TrEMBL record:
It comes from the Bacteria. Pfam families: Alpha-amylase (PF00128). This is Glycosyl hydrolase family 13 catalytic domain-containing protein. Keywords: Glycosidase, Hydrolase, Signal. Transmembrane segments: none annotated.
C-alpha cells in the first residue's frame, strides 16, 4: 500500500508541479503522459458575458464577401439547432452557419473551471482564441491578440489594436481580452491543470493586417512575399488580375508562402521546407508572447496544438520546436495530421514523432479501428484485427511518444461520438444528412449508448492520453461539421426540442435535448479510475484474449496490474482469470474464484488486490 501511495504522489507531482527537472529536447514532457485532455470550442462553450457579444463590425469580411444578412442577430443558446430565427428564414442551413454566433467567451470558460475540475480533466486544449471574424477563428485577423469578443471590452480592444504597429512587437499592448486570457491561464495553473493554444501557422484570414496591406499596396506591399501570390493587379487595366493560393482552394484563407522546398510537396505527406522569413519572425514573436508573457514562462501557456501540420515543411517545425523549448523546456507540441488518402488511409505519424518536431499527433489512427470494433458498422473488425491495428500504430511511435500521444476520438471536425457510433458508414465519409439522406442525426438508441460506454473504457485504460471533445460528457449528439459545434447542453438551461433532419422514424420528428447526467457520471468514473491508478498511465500493455468479439488486455508495472475485458457480442462468455484476487473498478464488486462471466455488450476492469 505504501508503494501505491508513493506512486500516486509522484504522479501528481509530475503533472501539477511548476518546478521539475528539465525535459530533454527530444522527449515529451512527463506531465503530458498523465493528461486528461478536454478540448474547448470557445464560441460554443459558454456565454459568460452577454455585454461582449459579437457585432456586425467584428464578424463581417469586406470586401471579400461574407457580409451578414440584413436583420442579423446573435442566436439564442437554447434554440433548435436546425430551426431558423428571423434573419435565417428562407436561407440554406449551411449558409447560415457562417454567420451564426452564440456569444461564447473567456468568462464562460472561467465560470466553468469548477465543472471541469469536478469532471476530473487536468489539461485544456482550446481551439483558436486569436482575434478573427469567424466562429472557428482559423481565419486570424491578429495572431498576437485574443479575439476582442472573447474579452470584456471589444470596443476598447479595437482601439488599442489600431494604435499598434502589428509588425513591431515592441508596440504590442495587452488588451482587456488578452489580460482575461492570462487570468484564465493563472486560474488553470492554480488548479494544477495545463492549457495549450491552437494555431494555424499555414494561413491567415483575409482581414489579417499583413494581408490587408497586400490588398491595398499590391506589389509595393512590404508583406507581398509573406503569401503565395500568383499575380498582382495591373492598375492600367479594368480587370483585377490579383490571384493567390488559399488553403485547399479557400479564398478566405490565404496561405503563408512556403520556401526552401527540397522534396515533393503533396497533401497528406510530410515534406522538407520552410516558410517565408518575415512571417516566421512574426510567428516566433507571437509564440514567445503566449509562452512567456512579460518574460515570465511560469505565467504562460503550456504548449500548442498545430493545425494542418502536414501543409508546412518539416524545416519550419524543427525551428519552431527549438523556439518553443528554448522558452519553455516542458512545453507540449501536438500536430494535426490526418488524411494520406481520403477517406481510406490516415497519415503515418512517424516523421513527426522522432523528437525533432512534435511530442504527439492527434491520434485518430487509434480511434478509427476502435470504432470498427466497438460500434456496429458496415466495416467490422474482430478482436484480433483490432489488436493488430493498435499494435501496428503504436509500434510506429517511439516508446515515450506512445504514452504522450493525444488519443483523439472526436473534435470540432468530426461527428460526435454518439452519432458516429449510431451510424454504419465508413469513418468520416458522408457523415452528414446533406451527403447521405439516410445518415441518422437524432438521439441514438440504447445499444449505441452501451457500445460507446465500452469504447470509453478502452479509451481510459489504453496507452496514451485520453481526449474529450467538449460536450461529449454531456451526452451530446451531432453529425459532421457544423453539427458537432452546437452550443453546449448545460444542465442549468432548458433547450427547445431539436428537429430531426432525415429518414429516422417518421412518427418522431423532434428529440428532447438536455444534459445527460448518466453520461457525465460515466466519464467522471473512468477519469477517476485512470487518475487513481498510475499503471493506466505508465504501465505496459499486453493482450490476453483477442477472439471474435471478445478482447482483453493487461496493464502492468512493478507495483500494480489491471485486467480489462470487453465483450461486444450479443451473448455471454465465461472466461478464466489469471490466479489472484480481483475487484472490478467499475462496479466495486469482488471477483471470487478464477471465473469471469462477461455478459453481452459488457466490460470489466479488474484490479489485482494484495
Amino acid at each position: 500500500m505504501k508503494k501505491y501511495t508513493l506512486m500516486c504522489i509522484c504522479l501528481f507531482a509530475a503533472f501539477g508541479s511548476r518546478a521539475q527537472e528539465a525535459t530533454p529536447f527530444d522527449k515529451a514532457p512527463e506531465w503530458s503522459k498523465s493528461a486528461i485532455w478536454y478540448q474547448i470550442f470557445p464560441e460554443r462553450f459558454r456565454n459568460g458575458d452577454s455585454k461582449n457579444n459579437p457585432t456586425l463590425a467584428n464578424i463581417n469580411i469586406p470586401p471579400m464577401g461574407q457580409i451578414a444578412p440584413e436583420g442579423w442577430a446573435v442566436n439564442q443558446w437554447t434554440e433548435d439547432w436546425f430551426g431558423q430565427q428571423g434573419w435565417e428564414t428562407g436561407r440554406d442551413f449551411n449558409d447560415n452557419m457562417y454567420y451564426r454566433r452564440y456569444g461564447g467567451d473567456l468568462q464562460g470558460i472561467l465560470d466553468k473551471l469548477d465543472y471541469l475540475q469536478d469532471l476530473g480533466v487536468n489539461a485544456l486544449f482550446i481551439n483558436p482564441l486569436n482575434d478573427a471574424p469567424s466562429a472557428h477563428k482559423y481565419d486570424a485577423r491578429h495572431y498576437h491578440h485574443i479575439d476582442v469578443n472573447f474579452g470584456p471590452d471589444p470596443e476598447g480592444d479595437n482601439k488599442i489594436i489600431a494604435a499598434e504597429n502589428p509588425a513591431d512587437p515592441k508596440t504590442w499592448q495587452w488588451t482587456a481580452a488578452d489580460k482575461l486570457f492570462l487570468k484564465l491561464v493563472s486560474e488553470v495553473h492554480r488548479r494544477h491543470m495545463r492549457i495549450i493554444m491552437d494555431y494555424s501557422w499555414n494561413h491567415t484570414g483575409v482581414m489579417f493586417w499583413a494581408w490587408q496591406d497586400v490588398l491595398k499596396n499590391q506589389s509595393r506591399s512590404a508583406y507581398k512575399d509573406w503569401y503565395e501570390i500568383r499575380s498582382f493587379d495591373d492598375g492600367n487595366t479594368p480587370e483585377n488580375e490579383f490571384a493567390y493560393t488559399g488553403w485547399v482552394g479557400v479564398s478566405s484563407l490565404p496561405e503563408i508562402r512556403k520556401v526552401d522546398i527540397t522534396t515533393q510537396r503533396q497533401n497528406g505527406q510530410p515534406y522538407e521546407g520552410n516558410i517565408n522569413e518575415g512571417a516566421k519572425k512574426h510567428i516566433f514573436a507571437v509564440t514567445e508572447r503566449w509562452l512567456s508573457p512579460d518574460g515570465k514562462p511560469e505565467n504562460g501557456i503550456d504548449g500548442f496544438r498545430l493545425d494542418v501540420a502536414d501543409q508546412i515543411g518539416l524545416g519550419f517545425w524543427r525551428e519552431f520546436r527549438h523556439q518553443v523549448r528554448r522558452i519553455k523546456p516542458d512545453a507540449y507540441l501536438v500536430g494535426e495530421i490526418w488524411w494520406d488518402q481520403w477517406p481510406d488511409k490516415l497519415m503515418d505519424p512517424t516523421p513527426y514523432t522522432q523528437g525533432d518536431v512534435f511530442d504527439a499527433v492527434m491520434f485518430y489512427q487509434a480511434y478509427r479501428p476502435a470504432r470498427y470494433f466497438f460500434a456496429k458498422t458496415d466495416f467490422p473488425l474482430n478482436a484480433e484485427n483490432f489488436k493488430n491495428s493498435l499494435e501496428y500504430e503504436w509500434n510506429r511511435l517511439p516508446e515515450d511518444k506512445r504514452y504522450a500521444i493525444m488519443n483523439v476520438s472526436s473534435t470540432h471536425d468530426t461527428p460526435r461520438l454518439l452519432t458516429d457510433f449510431y451510424n454504419t458508414n465508413k469513418y468520416k465519409f458522408q457523415a452528414n444528412p446533406r451527403e447521405n439522406p439516410h445518415y441518422r442525426t437524432g438521439k441514438p438508441d440504447e445499444e449505441t449508448y452501451q457500445r460507446l460506454r465500452l469504447y470509453l473504457v478502452h479509451l481510459f485504460t489504453s496507452i496514451g492520453a485520453p481526449q474529450i471533445w467538449n460536450g461529449e460528457e454531456m451526452g451530446m449528439w451531432g453529425a459532421d461539421d457544423p453539427d458537432p459545434r452546437k452550443p453546449l447542453w448545460w444542465p442549468d438551461y432548458h433547450f427547445a426540442d431539436e428537429t430531426r433532419t432525415n429518414r429516422q422514424p417518421v412518427e418522431k420528428q423532434y428529440d428532447k435535448v438536455s444534459f445527460n447526467q448518466q453520461q457525465f457520471d460515466w466519464y467522471k468514473k473512468l477519469i477517476a479510475i485512470r487518475k487513481n491508478n498510475p499503471v493506466l498511465v505508465n504501465g505496459k500493455i499486453e493482450f490476453m484474449t483477442a477472439q471474435g468479439g471478445v478482447l482483453s488486455y493487461k496493464r502492468y508495472n512493478a507495483v500494480d496490474e489491471i485486467l480489462v475485458y470487453f465483450n461486444v457480442e450479443d451473448k455471454t462468455y465465461t472466461l478464466e482469470l489469471p490466479e489472484g484476487n480481483y475487484v472490478d473498478l467499475l462496479t466495486g464488486k469482488k471477483i471470487e474464484g478464477r471465473v469471469l462471466e462477461l455478459g453481452a455488450l459488457t466490460t470489466s476492469v479488474l484490479k489485482k488486490t494484495k
